[in-house]
Structure to design on (429 residues):
């Protein structure tokens, strides 16, 4: 049966576990063997220590049975039997991976980053925050040498279909691996790390992206996995702050995440009735200090007791100077005489328990990711799974990544209307 692997990479986001669970279960449902790659690209570059060539039962053994080879063989046989009917191999209650990476060493996963998993291994993952299989930033993968090792590890495990859940950086990496794949295979064969038969068998890498990002910053999709949860957490925090603000008639400047993307700031502003938002894509037209004071003063004049300003971490003015929460505080205190506090929400925004919307999005997209992998042909592009107008869809991975990078470029060129236009999923250059 085909072997499908799933990994999470880059910054964590709520719903990544739901995505992994969905890919694993759908892969098994469709008669594939499922693998997880722990610790993002880093895990793929490292592979498994002390590995002896091809293995099948060994993978099961790592996950479930430690050194109990007889039990592993029995489980592998059961898996083999059930995969012929295409459904539900059960490897016990999956208590091993459920504990997450911090427990990995005790669980006999030390030095093992590519792990065969069963249906039950991902049970209970739907409502867990962060990513239980770990994520990392990996410098080695930016070099061809690292990607060569990653390719070797995939081929060694017989994996030719990979679902990557991460942000635009991770997906850029995925796209590079895909584009470079024939060259990598050729190099591996030339250095006799793989056989000619393997080079033939794995001539084409199937890869699919799932967008895990709290910022909702990927072009071509209406929503990314983790953004709804982050937004909810921000709203809870702003609500709490609002009651204090109103009680004391204070002003609060709240900094939220989003380096090139103001979605969190803007939506939080809408959802909490904030007085003013700063987002990178659309800086104030005039001098921001004047515009801000004018608006806030009006709100005070009509009787508002509290002032809430939300600022994205990447907020800038039209000259590309940063607008920081502390700068805004100074303006509010000095020019409006408001008792002003700054709150930087920081990592509380990343999530914790995913809200229903993220669980659903990740689950539906995980299903589509496996379908896309199994349908992939050398002639079709690699896809990123998106949602547009409430429908789960596919977009060419390369184009979505390119368009996302274009947003940052437009901003850096002071073409703010151009940057905003790129946020439109229907936009086509
Ligand atoms: P995110 O996926 O959240 O945007 P990063 O930008 O940190 O996070 O990217 C995560 C990882 O993806 C990096 O540590 C690196 O291993 C890989 N990556 C990012 N950009 C590239 C690139 N241009 N080429 C190869 N790998 C990349």
């Amino acid at each position: 049966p085909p072997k499908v692997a799933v990994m999470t990479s880059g910054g964590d986001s709520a719903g990544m576990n739901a995505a992994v669970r969905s890919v694993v279960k759908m892969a098994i449902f469709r008669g594939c063997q499922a693998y997880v790659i722990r610790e993002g690209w880093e895990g793929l570059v490292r592979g498994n220590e002390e590995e002896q060539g091809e293995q099948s039962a060994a993978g099961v053994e790592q996950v479930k049975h430690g050194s109990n080879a007889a039990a592993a063989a029995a489980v592998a046989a059961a898996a083999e039997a059930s995969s012929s009917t295409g459904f539900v191999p059960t490897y016990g209650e999956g208590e091993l991976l459920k504990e997450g990476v911090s427990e990995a060493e005790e669980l006999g996963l030390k030095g093992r980053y590519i792990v065969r998993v069963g249906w039950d291994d991902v049970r209970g993952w739907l409502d867990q925050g962060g990513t239980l299989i770990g994520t990392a930033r990996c410098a080695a993968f930016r070099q061809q040498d690292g990607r060569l090792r990653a390719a070797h590890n995939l081929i060694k495990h017989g994996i030719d279909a990979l679902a990557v859940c991460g942000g635009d950086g991770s997906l850029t990496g995925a796209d590079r691996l895909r584009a470079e794949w024939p060259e990598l295979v050729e190099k591996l064969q030339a250095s006799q790390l793989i056989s000619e038969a393997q080079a033939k068998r794995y001539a084409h890498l199937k890869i699919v992206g799932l967008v895990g990002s709290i910022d909702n910053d990927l072009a071509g999709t209406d929503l990314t996995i983790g953004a709804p949860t982050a937004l909810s957490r921000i709203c809870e925090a702003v609500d709490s702050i609002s009651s204090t603000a109103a009680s004391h008639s204070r002003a609060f400047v709240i900094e939220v995440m989003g380096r090139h993307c103001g979605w969190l700031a803007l939506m939080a502003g809408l959802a909490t009735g904030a007085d003013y938002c700063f987002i990178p894509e659309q800086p104030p037209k005039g001098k921001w200090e004047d515009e801000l004071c004018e608006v806030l003063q009006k709100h005070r004049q009509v009787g508002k007791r509290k002032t809430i300003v939300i600022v994205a971490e990447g907020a800038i003015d039209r000259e590309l100077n940063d607008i920081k929460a502390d700068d805004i505080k100074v303006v509010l205190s000095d020019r409006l005489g408001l008792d002003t506090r700054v709150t930087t929400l920081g990592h509380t925004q990343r999530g914790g328990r995913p809200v229903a919307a993220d669980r659903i999005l990740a689950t539906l997209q995980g299903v589509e990711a496996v379908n896309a992998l199994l349908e992939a042909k050398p002639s079709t592009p690699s896809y990123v799974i998106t949602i547009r107008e409430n429908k789960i869809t596919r977009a060419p991975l390369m184009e979505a990544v390119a368009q996302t990078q274009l947003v940052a470029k437009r901003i850096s060129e002071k073409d703010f209307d151009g940057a905003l236009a790129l946020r439109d999923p229907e936009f086509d250059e």
Remarks:
- The longest helix spans residues 168-190.
- Residues 9-11, 41, 137-138, 141-142, 166-170, 172-173, 176 surround adenosine-5'-diphosphate (CB under 6 Å).
- The radius of gyration is 24 Å.
